[in-house]
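Project standup — Tuesday

K.O.: blocked on the structure for the chain from last sprint. Re-posting the sequence here as requested.
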Amino acid sequence: MAQNRGSSFIINKLLTISAGLILLVFIIMVSYQSFTYDIESVLKKSKGQYIIFSSLVKTIELLPYILSSALILSFCLIYSIGLRKGKNDLQETDYIIAFFIFLLIAFLFTAILNEAVKPFMNLKVSEILITTKLSYQYLKKAKEYELQGKYSLAIENYKRYLTFEPKNIDIIDLVAELERKKYSEIPKPQIKTSETPPPTNPASLYNLAIYHTKMKEYVLAIYYLERYLLLNPNDTNAKSLYDKVKAVYESEVLNKKEDALYIMQQKRLGMSYIKQNKYVEAYNLFVALSKKYPNDKSIKPYLEEATNLYRKVDFFVSDAYEKKDYPGFNSTLLKLKDAKKENVYYLIFIDKVVYYFDEIYLYDVSLYNLSTKSFQSYKYGKKVQNYFVFKNSDLEHVITYFDIKIPYFKNFILLRSFNLFPLYTVFDLKNFIQSIGYHPSLFIDYLKQKILFYISFLFTLMISFKLSMIGMKRSDSHITIIEIIFFLLSIFLISISGYQLLFMVHKGLYILFTLSISPLLAFIIIFTIDLIIWVLMYFA
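H.V.: unblocked you, prediction finished:
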């Protein structure tokens, strides 16, 4: 029972000091990031989030150093203070039990932070940095257009920038000034002072009648022929032409009446589609009608309305292609759940994501169904309402519902930062990444980095425990507090450099062993060597 109380006392102190060191390092990181962050890389509104998230990432990355230092400091301080007070009744077995309990807690704590918390924090930091970069690209384009005098394009890009920094008063005032400049340069319509009087010469009237007949402008041809026949009523050629033109015109009017009736019926049908929210059907109907009667201007407003409504439920390849060169996020990888089907998940690789005000366009999209292991690829995609539309041409219309309730991708992961993926995702990702052309060595390297990290971390804690035991055994009641501080400081510095050195050694051993044996066997041998070295060190 005494040993249990002793080990409990040690583990409590050890966890307290560890928590204190983690908090101290986090405060130092927050202060450091507050003074050193790049103003050009982070929007003002995101400054607080960037500092907190990046400080958390840095603190998690320093966990091996922090926990090994906490182990040495705790054990040495507990032993030294107890020795000076003459109350050191703790046995070596108490420290050993406390160490192994701490080893388990530290490993689980580090694994959870690295595999669950750190990836999310990295995503937030990446999102802030990329969003800032995207906004400044719009700002740069706007200034270029402004210098070139292209005020409409400048205003458009400044407004895109304001979607990221809506409270930037300087840009708001600048947009207003450019609006005034743009409208001041619009040319005023010229007013005609006098109109040319209609011709009265018979030859001119007849020539005009011939011209308008050839142009199939029969109303004007009839007008000029009537004017001509008033001056030359006995011209038989003119009378014959007049009769022919009039007959053609009357026949055309009759046909126009039939066409007008058909057009009206189609318009009513198209509007009924719109009332039923069948925007695709309405758009297709008015497109066909416009092609059949290209000169009928009354169809145009119906087609424009149907086109705008069509964009609410679908998109045009031409719209997506037009925005392909806009700045955006490159190489984006997502894991999303199908909102319509139970337990169906997709991995989605998107070569480029472009934000255009409230619209999101996707380019070169690859979908991998984790349930069926099926693979599909599309050139274009767009987020429309609460679903995604993918297509290679306007003839396609593939709709997929994903369980994503935010208006843009806050949970994106950049493929170039592959080591930021949580360990549990690697097996799901393997087939998908290989199917879009990446070499499987990417996964081997990823697993190697993860496993070497945890092996090096455990071995660092074991070395730290041995160093603390050495420090305890060499302490006596006559050493001063200054000597204790210098001794602990030296051990602290050793622990800081120790993890990185051990990681490099383990990486070198892995490369050496994998020249002749499999990676799995190499890891087993490395772990066995670590265990043997630690046992020998402990009993030395």
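K.O.: great, moving the ticket to review. Confidence is low (pLDDT under 50) at residues 405-417. The chain has four domains: 2-133+441-539, 148-184, 202-313, 327-417.
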